[in-house]
Amino acid sequence: MSIQATLITLKNIPKGIPKPDDFEIIQSKIREPKEGEFLAETIYLALDPYVRVTMVGRHFFNTPEIGDVPRGSTISRIISSKHNSYKEGDLVVMESGMQSHAISDGADVYHVNTGSAPITTALGILGMPGFTAYSALLGPAQLREDDVVLVSAASGAVGSMVGQIASIKNAKVIGIAGGKEKCQWTIKNASMENCIDRKRDNIDQKLSELCPHGVDIFFDNTGGEIQKIVLSNHIALNSRIILSGMISQYNSSKPPSGPNLGNICKQRAIIFGFVVYDYEHMKESFIKDALSWYKQGLLHYSEDLVFGIENTPDHFIKLMKGENFGKTIVQFMDL
To answer: What is the Cα–Cα distance from 221 to 124, expressed in whole angstroms?
Structure first.
């Protein structure tokens, strides 16, 4: 079997918001899988903000070099296998990155299990974003009934699941999102009681109105100015802060000025630096609960999907500009 793979590679290490000429589309012949490996073709690629950080080495993955393929979770179909646990035709979730084909030894690979839900949910509400929300809320955040939960980037793949899971657990949820349309969507579909529009509203003032006693859990996906405002003025006694993402800082090479940490001490708050890969022991319970919630009609989602591997760079740039709406996905081929 001789296959020409299409790869999106780094032509330049991005500075600021990535540009189209930071990427290059190339063709490369892919080898046959060895014993204990399989070859898979990419059907769907998830684009996530953390990938931007990996492009400059500010993540726990290896520092990238020119010519590397950027990371990314995929739904892939196995087309050749010499692995005992994976056979031809299997659909799997794996880390193929921005390329049409990839070889794997099975590490960090699992079979697609979306039940009655659409297959792309394996990259969203039933995938890493959903698991991030679930494991953070039920793990270190110790979500309790009647907690007041504030989540930034509330219309995103992680933020919207935070709202829905917290609501299922009978907490009150306030979101922060960018724009009227996104805010309306979070209230209608992601179980937010209210949503603050970061583009139009005075965030400090609105939080005082909506959460006069502060928030018990702050699920931070953005960092930056929103983080400063919340930590300085709007955390309740014994609050729990989850630092899940810092998307407002991913395009910058300069570290931001910090928040007023004196309030952290005053309110006896706990800050958790959250990395989802530390919570694999919760994966089985997450899949069970999330599938049940979906069947009950309790989970909703939005996708921003384009077709064609050649559109990957532009779709990623759109994500990093904050112009996406929902889980950002590129479909490479028909299922």
So the answer is: 16
